[in-house]
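Intended use. Records like the one below are meant for learning the mapping from a protein sequence to its folded structure. Do not use them to infer anything beyond what is encoded.
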Amino acid sequence: MCDLSIGERKKQVRHLLASRGIENPGGTAEILLSAALGYSRAALLLHAGDLMPGEGEKRLAPLLEKRLERIPLEYVLGEAHFYGRPFSVGPGCLIPRPETELLVEEALAYLPERGRIIDWGTGSGCIAATLALERPCASVLGVDASPLALEWAWKNLRFHGLLGQVFLWHRKDPRDIPWKNGVDLVISNPPYIPTKKLPHLMKEVRFEPSPALDGGYDGLEAYRILIPWAEEVLTPGGILAVEIGDTSQVAPLRFMGEKNLVSLKVRKDYNGLERILLWRKSA
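Structure written out for the chain above:
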């Protein structure tokens, strides 16, 4: 049994995390102890003077060990939050990011109540599930090349009660998707990181599936397939909404969509980088 108080153990964990270069060691320490003890972070403060229970210490040890190995916190906890909702995550699916919430927010502004939606590269299913929950009369098709990612997506769809509204399709090439026309929204957060930049990303990223990150030599490989295909399947007035890596990708991507897609909007992320592109299919 630990002879430290909960507050003392939290300080100890924070110092250990900081010594290993873990980002936000104080907040991470609180999250790990909250998970181990089954407390909210507010309750953790309230019980800071209590003795750290032995069972809590047993649950904390493996969580802390994984985080010290630089396994992403979301994988350690088995959960990430997206658009205010919990989603199960783990090896094999990309961890939802706050920037992708902006993608969903923009798409919802143009999406009809009974729209038909294709989410290409659905991963955990967070985009498909969120759109379905926000538009209960819409039909959604989530597509991914990874069977493991689709397992996570199915688990999340089941949790949110969406197995009758969101359908999953295992394909690498969007041209193999069964919906060939009449689609109101094509949405995607495809791999957009240039291959040469992958080794320089945070250590945690190496635990995420590389096919969901690697966008080829210039980061635009996926869009070369996605954009022409979206032009074909979208209904006139339909929307293509994608997340991109940074401002440098805006001009070449706009050029790719010049044939039947009209540039609609570019939105910046929380750091002021242009990260969301929207097109509307011309009549």
